[in-house]
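To: structure subgroup
Subject: Chain for Friday's discussion

All,

I'm putting the inputs and outputs inline so they're searchable in the archive.
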Amino acid sequence: MNVGRLVGLLLVLVFPVGSAAQKKPADVFTDPEQAGPDFKLQGEYEGDIAGEKYGAQVVALGGGKFDIYFLKGGLPGAGWDGKMRTRLPVTDPVKRSFTSRAWNGEVGDSKITGETADKKSISLKHVERKSPTVGAKPPEGAVVLFDGSNADEWVNGKLVEGNLLKWGTRSKKGFGAGKLHVEFRTPFQPKARGQGRGNSGVYIHNTEIQVLDSFGLTGANNECGAFYGFAKPAVNMCLPPLSWQTYDVEVKPGSKEGELLATVWHNGVKVHEDFRLKGSASKPVTILLQDHGNPVAYRNIWFVPAKSASSRD
């Protein structure tokens, strides 16, 4: 055997074909500490522009590029007027600057700074919002479906990262009317786009409430918070990737025979009211957490059957 073949054989033995050692790290992150500098810049900001209150959502696009969405009045669910939404791209990975006829500035060091065309200040600071129901404890009468200790309540359920529920599973029990609480976390995938970015879904009565990294988007009927393909959320309440988010869903019978209605709160903000589901209150249906190829993790899942569910404020 010549030296070249011997070296090649040794390399195959040490780094087998298809092994992780040969593959480049994927641009999919579930650990903030490993997510890189772009992750630290992306997120939500609050402050003012020319003396008026604004929110901003900085969306990472990979390779040091970002889109900044400036929202007049504040962040979604916290002052934004729902109309004024200005997109400015950041294409220089070194300066991280944005420019337009009206505004110029840069993003960095947990703040967005700059000035308007008439020399008035742009000043916003990075903030981290949390859902008011994140970590909510199951009330009396709740059926605990996942508390981090095991995945016994789920068909082929598996734990990931020690105490989280892996995507792609269905509850063993079925449910009719009542209240569902579920927490989810989308991965950080800066180079992915559209439906390839943190895609999963929570199916209740065979109807999907979309889970997706839709941070900064408009809130269409195929984005996070939507009843997929049927109804868009009243406002896009999607938090930045790797944030823990909540769905609180109240399911109740409607006024018509066999009608079943759902009201949904995304991160504490009502995004749907009395949406008509496919099912019937008299027929329990299991809850599905969709596998769409992205590592979306779940935790703290419980359901309060209607006979035990108290009214919500």
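Points worth raising on Friday:
The radius of gyration is 23 Å.
Confidence is low (pLDDT under 50) at residues 1-25, 308-313.

D.
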